[in-house]
Amino acid sequence: MTAPIQQSQERPNAWLLDFGQTLRAAVGLRVLLQIVDGPRLHSVPCTPPHCRSVLPWQGRLLPVLDLAVLLGSQPQQPHLLAVAAYQERLGEPTRFGALLLTTPPVGIIVGNDQACPLPEYPQAWGKFALSCFGHQGDAIPVLHMGRLLSRRSDSQG
Fold first, then answer.
1. Could you tell me which residues come within 8 angstroms of residue 7 by beta carbon, excluding any fewer than 6 positions away?
2. Is residue 1 assigned to a domain?
3. Rounded to an integer, what distance in angstroms lies between the CA atom of residue 112 and that of residue 82?
4. b/e 47-72 (16+ beta carbons within 10 angstroms → b)
5. Is residue 5 in some structural domain?
6. How far is residue 73's CA from residue 77's CA, in Å, rounded to a whole number?
7. In this predicted model, what pLDDT tens digit does every residue of 27-83 receive, in sequence order?
8. What is the DSSP string of 9-62?
9. What is the CATH number of the domain that holds 146?
10. How far, CA to CA in Å, does 87 sit from each of 15, 17, 76, 115, 125?
11. How far apart are the first and last CA of the chain?
């Protein structure tokens, strides 16, 4: 009789997101709801360069965030979006937004023993990250979606 195949008990608990130009970050597994390939976006006039369009999604218009531009890099071509859910505060209604990605998200396993300081560059990571962990030799910020997408973050600078 052969022994049963042992499968790893550890399952991914985070998504690794690639924003292009060596900019990577992570979010919790439950934050991402859907990946949209080849999205049809609508431009919004008089908006900041990092958030110039919206995505029609399930009866809503979601803001589309180009994190690369927000962090000081070049704009990306909108071919892949990650729809994300977040709450500004516990007990408040769920809000939604979309993040422009250059490659599909990758499920990874992250543990407390991987904690590390935020990357020094770009400095803006400190405004949008909850924490940071080491992964394959890189420091990966963990995004705070409320800070990235909420209306309050725009007015609080």
1. none
2. no
3. 25
4. eeebbbbbbebeeeebbbbbbbbbbe
5. no
6. 13
7. 999 999 999 999 999 999 999 999 999 999 999 999 999 999 999 888 877 689 999
8. S----EEEEE-STT-EEEEETTTEEEEEES---EE-TT--TT--EEEEETTEEE
9. 2.40.50.180
10. 18, 20, 27, 24, 20
11. 65
Find the farthest-apart pair of alpha carbons in the chain and give their distance in angstroms, rounded. Answer: 69
Is-contact 132 141, C-beta < 8 A? yes
Which residue from 137, 136, 132 is spatially nearest to 117, judged by alpha carbons? 132
Number of structural domains the chain divides into: 1
Residue 8 lies in a domain: no
Look at the chain and count its residues.
157
Torsional class of 82: left (φ above 0), alpha (ψ -120 to 50), beta (otherwise): beta
Residues of the domain holding 77: 14-150
Domain membership flag for residue 35: yes
pLDDT above 70 for 3: no
Report the C-alpha gap between 99 and 123 in whole angstroms.
20
Block residue for tokens 């408040």: 92
CB neighbourhood size of 137 (10 A): 5
Cα separation, 99 vs 36, whole angstroms = 10
